[in-house]
Write a structure and sequence with these properties.
three-stranded mixed sheet; Arc Repressor Mutant, subunit A; 4 helices; about 30% helix; three-stranded antiparallel sheet
């Protein structure tokens, strides 16, 4: 976990380690409210700055589906300070409201003549595997 901060050339403050630990506890994307509840004591501005630097350095990515509250999920090692390289679908469950990053065997290739796609995000909404029982 701390190697992730070192690898991205981010100072390893106790607060940043604590926020990163929260992300590693979840297998799904989480809203800022979950992070706030899990922190013992925090300064809201410090939290926002931490989230911002984690986004900029490719540690987490932001997911917003249909204009809802932003959720954040930990990135894979392929992401970096230049771009996020996700090959998954963002899935929101209509019943439990959880947003998941779902890996797919083959990510679709889309070709738009005269356009250069630099990043592609696919979102799906339905019932997750737990709610679809």
């Amino acid at each position: 976990m701390t190697n992730l901060l070192k690898d991205r050339k981010i100072s390893e403050t106790p607060f940043r380690k604590e926020v990163l630990a929260i992300f590693t506890k979840y297998n799904n994307a989480i809203p800022l409210s979950v992070i706030e509840k899990e922190l013992k004591e925090y300064n809201r501005i410090t939290l926002y700055r931490t989230i911002k630097i984690f986004l900029e350095k490719g540690i987490i990515h932001e997911i917003t589906i249909n204009g809802a509250v932003s959720n954040y999920a930990i990135c894979k090692e392929e992401c970096d300070t230049v771009a996020h390289h996700h090959q998954h679908i963002h899935f929101k469950c209509n019943r439990c409201g959880i947003i998941f990053c779902v890996e797919v065997d083959k990510f679709p290739t889309i070709i738009l003549p005269k356009y250069k796609i630099e990043q592609l995000e696919i979102q799906a909404i339905g019932l997750c595997e737990n709610c679809n029982v």
